[in-house]
Amino acid sequence: MSRWYTPKKTTGLYDGSKSEPFKLSRSKIEYFLECPKCFYVDRKLGISRPNGFPFNLNMAVDILLKQEFDIYREKALAHPLIKNYKVDAIPAKHEKIDEWRNTLRGIQFLHQPTNFLITGAIDDLWQNSKGEYIVVDYKATAKFGDIKELDKSWHECYKRQMEIYQWLFRQNGFNVSDTGYFVYCNGKTYNRIFNAKLEFDVTLIPYTGNGDWIEKTVLDIHKCLNSDQIPESNSECDYCNYVKTVNEG
């Protein structure tokens, strides 16, 4: 058994009889939307999907972007990317910015009807001249062509990610702009020489979020976890289809 995979977890599982809040991360909400069965088996029975390898290059881009935007945050100045796209914003200064960007903490909200402690770790937070906070997420990839809009099927989870972050800040009493931004870094593969340097085309993509779906989804998750029945899998779940094919073979 790989040291990176724990076949049977015993901690962090849902138990409706306990009074302490159950921690539900933004990524686990997305997990439920991907496949209710996989989510239930993971969060209630302790059997999770095999882990994928971390995207270390993406993580490096994330770290470097945060460091760069922090320089302008300290100076209370707009980053050149913000200026180039004529966005009314500067990186926001807040005493909790590092906490909100910490994946082990993030911004949190106790959802009273379910006793879920809902969490999400942002990449960045800007603020406009009206005092509204702007949620910002970094993305890194390497694809042919310019990335100017979120028009692919897999971009839907990016949009939901943004909407959950906006929702969390609103639940914490912040004045949040409906429009968030994706700082999209696309690795250049057309350079003829590598020269030990990976360069990127960086675009800024606005997205107007709508979090109306979140409340119902959280209640659906609560209902799912309090059931003794394992829910049906998503017909498009690769993991469930793999297991089904193996069992049938």
The whole-number mean of residue pLDDT values reads 93
Question: Strand arrangement, largest sheet?
Answer: 2-5-6-7-8
Beta-strand residue fraction: 15-25%
Total count of helical runs of at least 4 residues: 8
Cα separation of the termini: 23 Å
Morphology: globular
The total beta strand count reads: 8
How can the largest sheet be summarized?
A: 5 strands, mixed
Indicate the radius of gyration in whole angstroms: 20 Å
Q: Give the helix/strand class.
A: alpha/beta
Which runs of at least 5 residues are low in confidence (pLDDT < 50)? none
**Helical percentage:** 25-40%
Domain PD-(D/E)XK endonuclease-like: 90-242
InterPro entries: PDDEXK-like_dom_sf, PDDEXK_AddAB-type
Protein name: PD-(D/E)XK endonuclease-like domain-containing protein
Organism: Candidatus Staskawiczbacteria bacterium RIFOXYC1_FULL_38_18
Structure description:
Residues 90-242 form the PD-(D/E)XK endonuclease-like domain. The structure is a single chain. This protein has 249 residues and is α/β, with parallel strands linked by helices. It has a domain at 55-107 and 120-221. Helices cover 35% and strands 19% of the residues. It contains 8 helices and 8 strands. Strands 2-5-6-7-8 form a 5-stranded mixed β-sheet, with helices on both faces. The chain has a 3-stranded mixed β-sheet with strand order 1-4-3. Strand 5 (124-127) and strand 6 (133-141) form a beta hairpin. Helix 1 (26-34) packs across helix 2 (36-43). The radius of gyration is 20 Å and the shape is globular. The two termini are 23 Å apart. The mean pLDDT is 93.
